[in-house]
Amino acid sequence: MSAARKRECACHSGKAYTACCKPYHDGVALPPTPEALMRSRYAAFALGLGPYLVQTLAEGHADTGMAPGALALELSRVKDRRRFLGLTVHSSAEDGDVGEVHFSARVFEKGADISFSERSTFVREEGAWRYLSGEMGPYAPAEG
Question: How confident is the model at residue 140 (pLDDT cuts 50, 70, 90)?
């Protein structure tokens, strides 16, 4: 088995990348839940997959007003200055075409700990989950 096939997914699920977020990143499958989309977006930040991050934004997201190419380039460069070291999902819920995921992310930038917690809101648009918004707070891995 190749190193790429064995590589653990950057979303910290414990699964191999090929069996976790890669099908979403490659566009061969859609994340079936808000949590799966959130994990795939975290992994996309870690891997520098800016186009995927833009593609998975909801129509009402604040960044959708930016030129998609410029936004994708900016998001692709995040991995060059940040290290994504862990992800803890505290809760995930769906109600029809709206979902919420509460998570904590371990992130470092230039040696500084910039870890955070977020309550993300997702909406289903044309059958696909998209990231709408998030409320960030201090890192708290043990919150419920």
Answer: confident
- Distance CA(46)–CA(111), nearest Å, equals 16
List 124's β-bridge partners, or say none. 129
Residue showing tokens 């994340």: 31
Domain boundaries in the chain?
3-138
Tokens, residue 119: 């309550």
Please give the model's pTM, rounded to 2 decimal places. Answer: 0.90
User: Which ranges constitute the DSSP H helices of 17-131?
Assistant: 22-25, 34-47, 50-55, 68-76, 78-81
| CATH T-level assignment (fold) for domain 3-138 | Nuclear Transport Factor 2; Chain: A, (3.10.450)
Contacts of 3 (CB under 8 A, 6+ apart): none
Is 104 a residue whose pLDDT tops 60?
yes
Distances (CA, A) of 77 to 16, 88, 89: 24, 23, 25
The two tokens of residue 47 are 């891997």
pLDDT above 50 for 118:
yes
Tell me: pLDDT of 1 over 50: no
